[in-house]
Design goal:
306 residues; 3952_t:CDS:1; 20% strand; binds S-adenosylmethionine; 9 strands; SAM-dependent_MTases_sf; two-stranded antiparallel sheet; methyltransferase activity; Methyltransf_25; alpha/beta
């Protein structure tokens, strides 16, 4: 059972009640999955409990791959009473909930188009707000000491990235840090089933103006911004260390689960039958493990000039 407060596909009881009229038009349902209903947002993954569980798994994979939750030199800053942190596209709130527990003196605000984060079982120093990062954010200039954004390449069209970064810099305090982390959508090594499915998803990206290689542009966005300096960048190209195989298996599980969530849309794009699609996903899972395929990842941070 996921940490998010939503009703499950199977209708399991939960803290979050989808039959509440105030909530009901926040979502739409398709092929047994629940999605956001924000008209001008392009994000196409669901937001139900199963997806929240996947996002928690993804969080643990990311933390393991990087061996940390962030790169920016903000540890001291986050230990200061009243430091303010913004997590953009917080998802199930996995990163934010862990960080808020580790840094109890700081205040953590998570924004997302989907209100699927815990309502009341959460650390006191947390708040979740519904907001669309493609629009002006509901915060005053110079509000946050640290702004973190991870895996939004599925939600921010390529052409919108510079204006999103600009809006984040507006709400960042002088001297504060902004950190972005994205993956390369393609794997370093791909078998035939992997290629076929990935090519289908690339078409979905194309339809929405999403940029599957935006991770390689993050550094440039921060370097080109005239209010930022001290830009640092780190790239991961493989699963490091002794746990590589185990991590590869978890990453494969995460990806395969995501492919199941996309089944209805993706099988028509790649013109596969339901059984053929299931078989392709299974084969792709085996290919990812056999080749130890990896999506390169980039994380980058910068400081706002004083
Ligand atoms: C792949 S998840 C990543 C979640 C989280 N950042 C993490 O790393 O665990 C992307 C999240 O971004 C949110 N999102 C997508 N488009 C958005 C937008 N335009 N504004 C705000 N949030 C958005 C989605 O609802 C989803 O929760």
């Amino acid at each position: 059972m996921g940490l998010c407060n939503s009703k499950t596909r199977e209708g399991k009881s939960s803290l979050f009640n989808d039959s509440n009229p105030e909530r009901i038009n926040k979502f739409f349902f398709e092929s047994g999955r629940r999605f956001h209903n924000v008209k001008n947002a392009v994000y196409f993954l669901p937001n139900d409990d199963d997806e929240c569980d996947r996002l928690h798994l993804q969080h643990f994979i990311e933390r393991y791959v990087w061996q940390s939750n962030f790169l920016a030199p903000v540890d001291r800053l986050l230990n200061k009473e009243g430091a303010k942190v913004l997590d953009v596209g917080t998802g199930a709130g996995s990163w934010l909930l862990e960080m808020a527990t580790n840094y109890p003196k700081a205040k953590f605000i998570g924004i997302d188009i989907s209100p699927v984060q815990p309502d009341f079982i959460k650390p006191k120093n947390t708040e979740f707000i519904e907001a669309n990062v493609l629009e002006p954010l509901p915060f005053k200039d110079n509000t946050f000491d640290f702004i973190f954004q991870r895996i939004l390449y599925v939600g921010i069209p390529g052409k919108n990235w510079p204006s999103v970064v600009n809006e984040l810099v507006r709400v960042l305090k002088p001297g504060g840090y902004i950190e972005l982390m994205e993956c390369d959508f393609q794997y370093n090594i791909m078998g035939p089933a992997t290629k076929r499915l990935i090519n289908g998803i690339l078409l979905m990206f194309d339809e929405r103006g999403l940029d599957p290689t935006v991770c390689y542009k993050l550094r440039g966005f921060l370097e080109e911004h005239d209010q930022l300096h001290n830009v640092h960048c780190e790239i991961k190209k493989t699963f490091d260390g002794n746990d590589g195989k185990k991590l590869c298996k978890l990453a494969q599980e995460n990806y395969t689960t995501a492919l199941v969530t996309m089944k209805a849309k993706l099988m028509s794009i790649i013109e596969a039958s339901s059984d053929e699609y299931d078989e392709l996903v299974k084969t792709m899972g085996n290919e990812l493990i056999e080749f130890e395929s990896f999506n390169p990842r980039v994380r980058v941070y910068a400081q706002k000039k004083i």
